[in-house]
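pls ignore typos typing on phone
magnesium ion + seq
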Amino acid sequence: MSDSIFLDVINAKYTASAVWADQYPVGDMPEVAFIGRSNVGKSSLINSLCRHGGLARISSTPGKTQTLNFYTVSLKVGEDQRNDFFLVDLPGYGYAKVGRQARQQWSRFIDEYLVKSSRLKLICLLIDIRHPPMESDLLAFRRLSQSGIPVQVVATKADKITRMAVIKQAELLSAGFELPLERQALAYSATKNTGRDALLEIIYQIFK
Ligand code: GTP
Ligand code: MG
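k done
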């Protein structure tokens, strides 16, 4: 771990939207993907991480994000180093009202992405900190883990419960997903930026 190194996002910009592999942006930048149930707070977390209020569209209506959205993000490391990566916002899963066909297509292109993106280095699976993992979350975790890419569980909306409850719920999630000790669930609040430094540190590990 690099305990004291300064990390921050200095630039983040929308680059491309894609459904199938031939539409992915070209290049060899590593990728960090974000996935979770609809309305879990993915877009909010991305905006918080990038300190960019309008980067990913936020909505109280679930199912807003229906493509893979690629953002180019520059991570400033210490005084003079810069590491660029693609942040990939994946569509939410498990939202019943979108219709069965749309949902099936989502999972097909998410699956294709997991198999075809050789640049994908880390997947952040977002779970609402207030609830135990649902069946669809456990299924998603299993499927993502099968890709062999590290999966970081991020427990969202941490500001909605007390600090004591945050610790307890994060432990329950880590146990529920049977997470290894070195990759326990990370509590995050997009409104307070809690967990931001820790998540930047986890992302920085992909460059080592
Ligand atoms: P889809 O793109 O529709 O799948 O949703 P999403 O996962 O991107 O969720 P989004 O960021 O749009 O947030 C959904 C709702 O939760 C919005 O009303 C947000 O304001 C709220 N929200 C997201 N993150 C937080 C958080 O950390 N704290 C609080 N209090 N509210 C949050
Ligand atoms: Mg979204």
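The chain is about 30% helix and 25% strand. The chain has a mean pLDDT of 89. more later
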